[in-house]
Amino acid sequence: MKAILRSGRSLRLPASGVLLQRGQPRKLATAAEYVYLSAAHSRRVELQPPPRLVGLVRDGRYRHAAPWQLDELTEQGWRIRPLPEALDAADRVLVIRNMGLGDVLMLTPALQALHQQWQVSVEVATYARYVPLLWGLPGIAMAHVLGTNYQAQRFDAAIDLNWAVESGEEAQRRPRQDIFARLLHVRLNQRRPIYRVADSERHWARQRLAQWHPPMVGIQVHASCRQRSYPAARIATLTELLQAEGYTVAFLGEQWEDSTPPQVLDLTGCLSLRQAAALIEQMAAMICPDSGLLHLAVAVGTATVGLFGPIPPQLRTAGYPHCQAVTAAGACPHQPCFDSRAAGCRKPYCMQAIEPQSVIEAMHTVLPSGS
Description:
371 residues, Rossmann fold, 11 helices, 17 strands, 26% helix
């Protein structure tokens, strides 16, 4: 139990819980009035109030509430109720999560477990570009664009995971999938992300790559931030080594701004995420920095090599099958910095120190025999 303080008054909160309006029935069939609080949200906020920490659904309408508003809410007749008790009474649950592609994919095992273990219909709200990734996944009834088309929907509970796993000691010692599972009160059967390539997409991908000689290895050319990206000169050397071994190389991800090496299939900046997933499924291996396509490659079953610098790889790839992480431990005295030196790190030394030959060797450890 931790206290949230406001003007000298203290409100005791459980590590995670919801607020239920007094007088409502246990089973809310038409309107939900819940607030979800993760452990990271239940903290002292009088010195630096964090914004947008609590998700609130009232009369089917969603909005954010801040912890310093909770005194006012309790005066209006709300009370604390443990999240497991709320889930036990729920039929339809909304899970809200912002942030990037990797986070959405790392959340999918916990979403499936939430559906299976609590016997609830699970819907998700996230950024528009990630909504198609959730189409047709087992355990997810519907995906909504964050902040828009689910506003008029009615849910029995809303679980807000926005900014719930980004800070604190737990974020630096436990895999993110495990943190999501703890916040949702579920047990994970696996950490591997869940994704499904449609048959029509698989057919399109095969046609798209038909003119290129297999086996093909994909390289994600950019991470979401500079300090996690593999330097362009290293990518060029890696490409030459792969081609010397007989592999066809494809570049994926955001637009590649340098000159494309000869005989490389440049797919950067021209694919939807679902198209990228279908193409990656057809490749022998995928080489990625610590970014979203790494998790997508693991989800579709492609042998994957992850290049890590600022963040320890075990926090992102623990339990991933056919995935080998490569890191240059000790390359920088600040490693791991968890991106905290993004402003002052002019050159990502931890990524620069990863030798292309070590990446090739790691790839051979995860490729099926004969590839």
